[in-house]
């Protein structure tokens, strides 16, 4: 017996005939595509990711505005077929499952999305607050969540500093702090 009901995946159940009445219990399932949005390098869940699910024609049929701390998403689908997922999150590159769809057959499928973190650079100049002149030969530290992650000397003639290829994984707070004998240090939080 083949059964199709709107809002459920099709079901096919064999029926055996014997003496007397035949009772056939048919189970209908709603399909699903679920998984987690994960960091491609650390395999850690990404909170706050936006996830879309599209049909085989790339028409968006569902959206999740922000994943929770576990990075989880769950979309209910009512037809067997190929579905495509896409995700984006702050400090990560956009990712779209292409050409590998999540294929739903008789129940559902688990399909994780892996996002690659964006790296960034931090540049600036250390100035004397009173004279507005560059401070030469200072040391600048880059902090992430209160810990030093990189150190840069300032230029001997320009007072400039530079940090490059800083990986931004998840939601973190960065700030820079400059040091030089005879000066009071000041923290500058990065947005």
Please describe what this structure looks like.
- With 191 residues, this protein is mainly beta.
- 0% of the residues lie in helices and 45% in strands.
- The protein has no helices and 17 strands.
- Strands 4, 5, 7, 8 and 9 form a 5-stranded antiparallel β-sheet that branches.
- It is rod-shaped.
Short description:
The chain is an all-beta fold and 191 residues long. 0% of the residues lie in helices and 45% in strands.
Overall spatial form:
rod-shaped
Helix content: under 10%
Structural class: mainly beta
Low-confidence spans: pLDDT under 50, at least 5 residues?
A: none
What is the average per-residue confidence, as pLDDT, rounded to a whole number? 84
Head-to-tail CA distance between termini: 61 Å
Per DSSP E runs of 2 or more residues, the count of β-strands stands at: 17
For the largest beta-sheet, the strand count, sense and barrel status come to:
5 strands, antiparallel
* Binned strand content: over 45%
Radius of gyration: 27 Å
Number of helices: 0
Order of helices and strands: EEEEEEEEEEEEEEEEE
Give a quick set of tags describing it.
191 residues; 0% helix; four-stranded mixed β-sheet; mainly beta
Summarize the SSE layout with pairings.
Layout: E1 2-3, E2 11-12, E3 31-39, E4 50-54, E5 60-64, E6 72-77, E7 81-88, E8 95-96, E9 102-104, E10 108-110, E11 113-115, E12 119-125, E13 139-144, E14 147-153, E15 160-167, E16 174-179, E17 187-190
Parallel strand pairs: 3-10, 3-11
Antiparallel strand pairs: 1-2, 3-6, 4-5, 4-7, 7-8, 7-9, 12-15, 13-14, 13-16, 16-17
